UniProtKB/TrEMBL annotation:
The keyword Nucleotidyltransferase applies. Its EC number is 2.7.7.9. It catalyses: alpha-D-glucose 1-phosphate + UTP + H(+) = UDP-alpha-D-glucose + diphosphate. InterPro entries: GalU_uridylyltTrfase_bac/arc, NTP_transferase_dom, Nucleotide-diphossugar_trans. GO terms for molecular function: UTP:glucose-1-phosphate uridylyltransferase activity. It holds the Pfam family NTP_transferase. Signal peptide: none annotated. This is UTP--glucose-1-phosphate uridylyltransferase. Residues 11-282 form the Nucleotidyl transferase domain.
Amino acid sequence: MTKARTRQITKAVIPAAGLGTRFLPATKATPKEMLPVVDKPAIQYVVEEAAAAGLTDVLMITGRNKRPLEDHFDRAYELEEQLIRKGDQTRLDRVRESSDLATMHYVRQGDPKGLGHAVLCAEPHVGDQPFAVLLGDDLIDPRDPLLAKMIEVQRELGGSVVALIEVDPSQAHLYGCAAIKPAEWHGSVGSDGEIVRITDLVEKPAPGDAPSSYAVIGRYVLDPAVFEVLQATKPGVGGEIQLTDALRVLAQRTPGRGGPVHGVIFTGRRYDTGDRGDYLRAIVRLACEREDLGPEFRSWLKEFVGKGELDLLGNDEESDQA
């Protein structure tokens, strides 16, 4: 097949206007994106992922009470000077790390009209070039470079690309789900089985009505035609403008008109920080794998479990079944 060569992708959009109500009261005065995962805020992992994939221009879609996000990715001169005086080069490097990742830009969403509306807010900055969208609740392990693969697929096939995971059918109603078919893929990244053509998308389908068990997660590489479609997209599930609904329209289009839409099936390490339980599990997993923290933390964790400190779990299970 003829390869659909597209322009180089350099821009990433990170929607970060959510209120984080699942983490109240911690998020009453602190943006959920700034909650620490071990010793870095969750949002820094996302920006690091974008930078590692070559996206040097990052636009963050924010809202009220999100100023700490801007401060985190800005220089902290007083703190840096103090660390310089102390000769603490290690901490100085870590403080400067976030401000050196990418060129950061910010725009406020204003009315919380959904993910589709948040992406639409990026149009003046993005313009007429393909771009990536990364949601902050999904942390992708850097050892499994999903975004780089998606960018390569978009470069080869054009249109838009979404990340998919296979979920239990009983959980499909929590996601946007895709109807898929095999795709012609001859790129250097991945295999044919990992790349699929999306023929339909449904946001949070009713139980039993999902088109497949393949669910969309928070990584997208989008053709700029999505802006035109979003402008015409009416509120959907939850009364919000859904990005899934716009992608459904693009999936029916031909190359050159914003289509098609492909999916990359992801089977790597993913940490969900949007749920309290998964957030805690993400911290434990990442701490265990750290070279500086892992050995001591794993030893303590084994001792903690070995001493029967988790015996109360049995009572919790009985309560859940009551």
